[in-house]
Amino acid sequence: MKIGKTESALNAEIERRGALFAVLLDPDASDDSALLKAGTLAAENGADVLLVGGSFMGNFKLPAQVAALKAEVKLPIILFPGGASQVVPGFDAILFMTLVSGRNPNYLIDEQTRGGVLVRALHMEAIPTAYQLINSGKRTAVEFISGTMPVPADKPKLSMVHSVAAELMGMRYVYLEAGSGAETPVPVEHIAYTRKATELTIITGGGIREPETAAIRVAAGAQIIVTGTLWEKVKDPALLKEFAAAIHIKG
Ligand code: 1GP
Fold first, then answer.
1. What is the CATH number of the domain that holds 26?
2. Which domain holds residue 159?
3. Rounded Cα gap, residues 182 and 137, in angstroms
4. Does the Cβ of 229 fall within 6 Å of ligand 1?
5. Which stretches within 107-233 are classed as H helix?
6. What is the tally of structural domains in the chain?
7. Given a cut of 70, is residue 228 above it in pLDDT?
8. Which one, of 116, 110, 185, 183, lies nearest residue 147 by Cα?
9. Does residue 47 contact residue 22 with C-beta atoms inside 8 Å?
10. Atom 4 (ligand 1): residue with closest C-alpha?
11. Which residue owns the Cα nearest ligand 1 atom 6?
12. 10 Å Cβ neighbour count for 68?
């Protein structure tokens, strides 16, 4: 499958800035106006991309929320789905994910089979992405919901071999995930091992609360840093700017 417009633009921006700052908006955690405000604030203070997603998103208003965001914000808005039922119109692209670190067929092929039909029907751009859950200390929602065991935090070779397999299967991005609100983010070794072994574009997120934590992960080879939970309480333009500055290593 050819690289689409949004993925090309992301790749060009990664080339230009070194790494990108993504803000994750969870429609389940905020009402319409809060979601719009959070997206606008992020866009005005250095974010490069908005991800929209959550574990459930049983939200029939999602297409309208995305349309409202799209009207206000000129950044790519990418669906980060928890399952096939969340594929709705309005996004620039979807992270079309496979939970490769798990052994649950539902998240290896079932959801993709159901969701793929919708993605094609909507003519939505898909970014083929391997999703890996890395142990972050306590059980996370994604571990519980997906019914999969995370990769042990002290076994970076294990996530690396999954990344290699994903690259050989044709995926182009890998998301190294500690889980939303994780106690500890993905250890840098996991990022460094995948960076060394593959040419995948590395996204990482989960439990990143300080610019320095992001900067260390960019230095290890991550190209997109995702922060979500932090912004549900903190509405600080200065902190957003500090994150952007820490991540944009090429200025
Ligand atoms: C969760 O990686 C994302 O899927 C972001 O995590 O909410 O902890 O920033 P946080």
1. 3.20.20.390
2. 5-247
3. 8
4. yes
5. 111-121, 141-146, 156-168, 188-197, 211-220, 230-233
6. 1
7. yes
8. 110
9. yes
10. 180
11. 206
12. 17
